[in-house]
């Protein structure tokens, strides 16, 4: 039987951006921005069919959220702990699970343990909490000692996860977020930098505390099975950046072979190296350019999201992208990827007003057809510009057809001789002679379900 996190579609929120919080935390009074999420965005998220939210970072920080200063306090730019408790409560009442960012590879320089080292140097009882501490050196921030920093960013000091005290402290942080807020999972920031024993211990700790707790890791390159899998020593899932790249470049270059090859490699029935795994699928997120900016033809948003939802994996949509907004990294910064949005305004001025409805269709299919979650994947038709695949489980079958050409396309898709229904329009087509004949518009996509 599937777990909730395998069946869910995730809505991804970067709250500092969405809620228009200042990019620097200057301290001072708490500003209660969370009620906007609770009162306005939660109903919107529910209505689109999402059954889970990944939100973060939330820990108190000095700037972008990944420079943690207090692991047990919601960032004052967003609200307080009570605001978040209420948000989770209301989400749960709507049937929506909540997953938060776990930033455990590094902390900010204002975190209590780092401050103690700055003040006491070698007399600090926390001097083993960070990697590469050297009191004969100095840092780019002139701390009076040197230390390992994440990618050379001096304000992100790397924690020593081999130290038992550090591990126990962070495990206690997770306990706190489960006990205090009843969260349902954690997305591990920089999972490809974390110590494997730490992740194994975290999985044991969380499963003992909440049996269906989900752990998903941010991993960009490498063999995803090193980090995720059914083994109790691993995370449940990781980000599928390999597929993300193909989703936009395969459309821009009119080369569906790129996407199909990725899926064969990952999930092919015979040789797929990640068969049985549920990787986290996305078209964009808070670290990469918006999919609407990456695609040369905006019509391709339709087949891209059909693949995000219907290919093997756990689908995710980044806030605002359901409206087709654009955004690119500017001057090496991510602010343009993380804009403040007013929901009422977006609903009136969405660049792609049809897209929300398409996501609702895809969510409904996925909710009603278990083949979309656990069914086998089968490639049915493949050319540079047309692609069709099926998901099959017992008698349940779903077919997906896509066309990246600038012209309409006639497709003859291998299918059982039966009646098939277009999930978007409700039109029914009968397959005959083992083929389903469909016509797709330029840049179009369609999903067909077998009529029982």
From TrEMBL:
CDD domains from the UniProt entry: AmyAc_euk_bac_CMD_like (cd11353)
Coiled-coil spans in chain: none
Matching InterPro entries: GH (IPR017853), GH13_cat_dom (IPR006047), Glyco_hydro_b (IPR013780)
Keyword entries, A-Z: Glycosidase, Hydrolase
Protein name: Alpha-amylase
Alphabetical list of Pfam families matching this protein: Alpha-amylase
Record keyword Zinc-finger present: no
GO biological process: carbohydrate metabolic process
SMART domains, per database record: Aamy (SM00642)
SUPFAM superfamilies: (Trans)glycosidases, Glycosyl hydrolase domain
Gene3D superfamilies from the UniProt entry: Glycosidases (3.20.20.80), Golgi alpha-mannosidase II (2.60.40.1180)
Organism taxonomic ancestry: Bacteria, Bacillati, Bacillota, Clostridia, Lachnospirales
